[in-house]
Amino acid sequence: MKNILIEIKSTDAHEIERLILDLNNSKLVSIDSNYKPVVIKRKKNKTDSFENTVLIKGTTYENEFNKIEEFPFIYKVWLDDEIKLDCSCNGSRKGTLDDVAECIGAKKLWGKRL
Fold it and tell me: What is the mean pLDDT of residues 73-101?
């Protein structure tokens, strides 16, 4: 099973509940009910028009991604892999956000003006 993020083309709370139920009933995906849906403001076109979508989380088999995207209310499905950083710059494999930023050079980039 793979963790996935699913972007739905609706922000109406009642409709989202119904669409999540439809997805669960499809047996293609198991929706994570502990993950609170996140509203995404997506640029619709070049004239600065926006549309809102909602991101939910679930699990599925990798070969089911395309089938899930065939639902008319699905905008996109992404693999939700865990990102692991090995920040052993300071001799330790643990660190704060500040330590990691220093380790990967982000602090230097943050300090530059464009």
Answer: 73
